[in-house]
Specification:
The protein is α+β, with helices and mostly antiparallel strands. The chain has 2 helices and 5 strands; from the N terminus they run βββββαα. Bound molecules: zinc ion (ZN).
Length: 97
């Protein structure tokens, strides 16, 4: 995994500050214009624009993406959503005590 620090930008969906992008492929890729990524907080699929700001990925971009990319994005989304669900369960169980 290669994590690239970048200028912090808010997620356009949940507004969490995003300041790094991680390549899970082991190929050492750094983010570039047009690349898609997943918000680590809300799991929205995002895309880097020409100025390397994050936008919600357009339907067109998702339709045009290779199937391998879509599978990988969904795998990462599932990991984020599962982590969030576990955290919510922990939070709600500790609130009941
Ligand atoms: Zn988000």
């Amino acid at each position: 995994m290669t994590t690239t620090q970048m200028q912090a930008h808010p997620c356009p969906s949940c507004h969490a500050e995003l300041s790094a992008a991680t390549d899970y492929t082991g190929q050492g890729n750094k983010p570039s214009t047009g690349d898609m990524t997943v918000c680590a907080y809300c799991a929205t699929i995002l895309q880097f624009d020409d100025e390397m700001h994050l936008q919600v990925a357009s339907q067109q971009a998702l339709i045009a993406a290779p199937i391998d990319t879509l599978v990988e994005l969904q795998r990462v989304r599932n990991a984020v959503l599962t982590r969030n669900a576990i955290q919510q369960a922990k939070d709600s169980s500790s609130a009941k005590r």
